[in-house]
Design a protein that fits this description.
homodimer, alpha/beta, Nucleotidyltransferase, domain 5, 2 domains, five-stranded mixed beta sheet, 10 helices, 13 strands, 35% helix, 22% strand, globular
């Protein structure tokens, strides 16, 4: 059975895993993310060599190394041009790693990798055309067409969070106003939760946050909406509306077979997803014959980054 | 040199053309569009047979027949499920035509066909990944990935005009509010022109429309903006903003090499396009390294429908 190495680079740690062609994680190691790119390359390079050895393998036993990394990456050159998360600019990551381990490398943005992983090994297995949102601090996007990643020119496409949904709306981190990310990210949810609390001093959300608005996080509104707090319910209702309208946009653009939702906010589970599905079903685009899009949650969980990175080599 | 038949079905007439592999239109005929689908199939089928004969050809001399048709079409089955424009529902067009001419048939939505034609033979020749808007009564969309049409599940994707840009905005024909089509179509432009005229009884647009608001069309605001009428200039400025923000959304989603603008409104030429390019260049997404998207106008002109339909066979 074919084996792959999957690498998930994050701001705090780097996860390395051995994945087989069924998407099972056979072994895993975690190293700390160093503060500068050169140190990261050294640590990761040495860890890859050690990890293979520990598992009784050489580079000949694996199909290659897949890497998921936050930021703007050109897959063809293996260069991380810019990563806000890592503080990197123009890092020749793949060239650097090849000095340690001579293998086939494939690299892509972490949101792309998450989407590919779900199609090859996860929730969207069996589908060919899939769109995915990763709902985290920002809104990451992944486009799978014919079971392959679509990345756009110089791998700079699939910025699905940076399409305007509310013209002239909230400021987005990208410089535009009203992007999907400015309404559907955890940061946006926290902003809207705080506003609702400031407008309603009686809301149960205050108690949940120990009466300190700085304690508000992405779960605050959801937790108190489950307790029927009206202001919290309104925040959740609006969030569902923003998210569902964004999903419906991508359904009309791509008419994929499935739309996958991943990222921290999806930890809310059925409480969130059932509302999104109900909203979209009521507003199905166009005439009756348009095929419905299955809206599903990601299933790869904590190791999605490793398994998705390995999927780059499948 | 290979030869193709291209068919452009419209509400008023059906154009049939003989196209060679360089995209040149060698011969052309036009027939009236009958009022019911069965008559259209009969007329078109007989016309195809006669057209080949007139040009000294048999079905063996052509690669096939490509058809562009308004509405919701499933390419794989050759069925026009729904066409508002033609008043059709579930018309088995390809099966019907095969009874007259036994050839390879390819069929797609007219906006898709226009986009493919521009990539294979027109303004976007040489590019692989291209997105196109057809700015007519509605806003049609076409997505080309790796020089091939991306149509989505059951050919129901690429509804680029039906993504919300202004949440809760103007009513769209599709039932949602604030779609791109509700701001960038000729119908939307006419609505906004009329509103501007009603708010400014001194506008030169009144004179241009012979003081009858029913005479307003998609050219009214542009014509008087060229004459520096302030209300007309404001209508054009807003139109450019809506269109440019929509284009920028698709640049972030697809990061194509080129974005093509076609359809009647593009008859405004440089006066429109230069403004759109200037708007988008000033608001280039993200960091410096993101590759720019070339914004260009369609070049296939009046016969775009025929030539694009032929491109389905290339």
């Amino acid at each position: 059975m074919k084996k792959y190495i999957g690498v998930d680079i994050g701001g705090m740690s780097i996860k390395i895993g051995l994945v087989n062609e069924e998407g099972n994680l056979l072994a895993k190691t975690v190293v700390k993310t160093e503060s500068d790119a050169e140190s990261v390359i050294k640590t990761l390079g040495e860890s890859l060599v050690r990890f293979l050895k520990e598992n009784g393998l050489t580079e000949k036993d694996i199909e290659g190394v897949g890497i998921g990394c936050p930021g703007a990456i050109t897959g063809a050159t293996g260069v991380v041009e810019y990563s806000n998360n890592l503080g990197w600019k123009n890092v020749r990551l793949v060239d650097g790693l090849k000095k340690y381990l001579d293998a086939q490398y494939k690299i892509s943005n972490d949101a792309n990798v998450a989407a590919l992983g779900e199609v090859i090994f996860g929730a969207a297995k069996g589908y060919s055309d899939v769109v995915m949102f990763t709902l985290g601090t920002g809104v990451g996007g992944g486009i799978i067409i014919d079971k392959k990643l679509y990345e756009g020119n110089e791998s700079k496409g699939a910025e699905l969070g940076h399409a305007v949904l509310v013209l002239g709306g909230e400021e987005c981190t990208c410089g535009r106003k009203g992007c999907i990310e400015a309404y559907c990210s955890a940061s946006a949810l926290i902003r809207d939760t705080k506003r609702a609390m400031l407008a309603d001093t009686e809301s149960k959300m205050w108690e949940y946050a120990n009466n300190d608005i700085n304690n508000v996080n992405g779960r605050t509104a959801f937790a108190m909406a489950r307790e029927n707090d009206e202001s919290a319910m309104k925040v959740v209702e609006n969030y569902v509306m923003y998210l569902s309208e964004s999903i419906m946009n991508y359904c009309n653009i791509f008419r994929p077979e499935a739309f996958v939702l991943g990222g921290g906010i999806c930890g809310e589970g059925k409480f969130l997803i059932d509302k999104v599905v109900a909203y979209c079903e009521k507003r199905h685009y166009g005439y009756q014959g348009t095929p419905a899009v299955k809206i599903i949650t990601a299933t790869l969980g904590n190791d999605a980054g490793i398994i998705g990175a390995a999927a780059l080599l499948v």
